[in-house]
Write a structure and sequence with these properties.
29% helix; 2 helices
């Protein structure tokens, strides 16, 4: 992936390439081996193969993959997994009572 930071006129301010395993949380992006926090400009994540010039077109901006890399709420995820485990255990106990 590549991280492209741009201004309101779509002029590119910075490009970071070879972003591996990105995680996007608000204005922060973390990846294997680095991070940028408190990004003050709009930014997008694009496939490395995409070539961009000095400015971004609306078509390129629409290829943003940022939504595909959200930060995970581990507390919520753990609660969901615990609930599913308890349901599975209850179903197994019910089946054992029937047999």
């Amino acid at each position: 992936m590549k991280l492209v930071i741009y201004d309101q006129e779509h002029n590119i301010k910075e490009i970071r390439e070879n972003i591996l395993s990105p995680v996007v949380e608000g204005n922060d992006v973390r990846w294997e081996g680095g991070s940028l926090t408190g990004i003050k400009f709009p930014f997008i994540l694009l496939d490395d193969e995409l070539e961009v010039g000095e400015t971004l077109t609306d078509e390129i901006i629409q290829l943003d993959k940022k939504e595909e890399y959200p930060a995970h709420d581990l507390v919520e995820e753990n609660l969901d997994l615990r609930t599913r485990l308890e349901s599975a255990e209850a179903a197994i106990l019910t089946l054992m009572d029937i047999v």
